[in-house]
Amino acid sequence: MSEAGWKAFVTADGVADWVVLHGGPTAAFRTASIREAAQLAAAIAEVPGLDEAQSVLTVTDRHVSVRLTRDLWGLEPGHVDLARAVSAVARGQGARADRAAVQEVQFAIAAQPQAIDVPFWRAVLGYRPLADDAGTDPLGHSSTVWLQELDPAKSLRHAMHVDVSVARERVAARVEAALAAGGTVVDQSAQHWTLSDRAGNRVCVTAWPDGYPDPTNPAA
Question: Does residue 219 carry a pLDDT above 60?
Answer without folding.
Answer: no
